[in-house]
Amino acid sequence: MALASVPAAAQVAKPTAAIPDFDSVSAPNSIVAAAQAFNANLPARSSFKSARILETMKSSSTGTVKIAVDLLPTADGLTRVREIYSPNFYVDREMVGLVQLKSKMSAVDTSVSVTQALTVKAHDWKKGGEVSFATEAVDVPGKGKASDSGLDCQVGSPVSASKVSSGLPGNAWPLDCLRLGDGPVKGYYVEALGYFLATREGSKESGIADTTVDSISIER
Fold it and tell me: Which pTM was predicted?
């Protein structure tokens, strides 16, 4: 899912430990299994080889930003996500539905943030239901305390996914969420992609950001 603001990567100090490659670090098997069990309550993702989402984000702090989001499903039910903000800056993520397993920024030598704990609070996926979870992640190599994140979402009535992007098959579920320790985020969980498209986000640091989907292309 797109960020409300692009991190100030140039201000991140280089760690003294060796920086691992994104693929060389994995979330614990127990966390992956817990995320997959939580995701089983969500509508099943359709089968596709890859997808690209082109978005325009307008933020009170960064102005207008064009974003490309590449989705690559894996054989074990995960999704590799790359959010491209410029030719020189992108963020890689590994996701299971709404849950992030790990992430890494490209612009500087940064650690891989890896989820080490997942707490499911609610998983009532239906109109008017609630889905809620919290995660705790650590940097590899470690260079600070663990970071907490999560979502507390109210599920709306499903609509045709073509409302999100013309020609997109299946349904999209409106989600009205609050990020743990941060601001609100609204958007659609797109069944065909197994992905949460944020359309409006509020951040304590960056203010309000509105995102529109310009196009979605899917390779089957």
Answer: 0.87
Inter-residue contact 35 to 130 (CB < 8 Å)? no
pLDDT of the residue at 18: 63
Place of tokens 């409106």: 174
Q: Which residues contact 123 (CB under 8 A, 6 or more apart)?
A: 38, 41, 131, 132
Q: How far, rounded to the nearest angstrom, does the alpha carbon of residue 77 sit from its chain's CA centroid?
A: 15
Domain extents in the chain: 26-219
- Assigned fold of 26-219: outer membrane lipoprotein receptor (LolB), chain A (2.50.20)
- Nearest-angstrom CA–CA distance, 56 and 87: 16
CA–CA gap between residue 100 and residue 170 (Å, rounded): 24
* Closest to 57 measured CA to CA, from 175, 205, 199, 207: 199
Distance CA(118)–CA(112), nearest Å, equals 17
Task: Please identify every stretch of the chain with a pLDDT value under 70, giving residue numbers as ranges.
Answer: 1-19, 107-109, 143
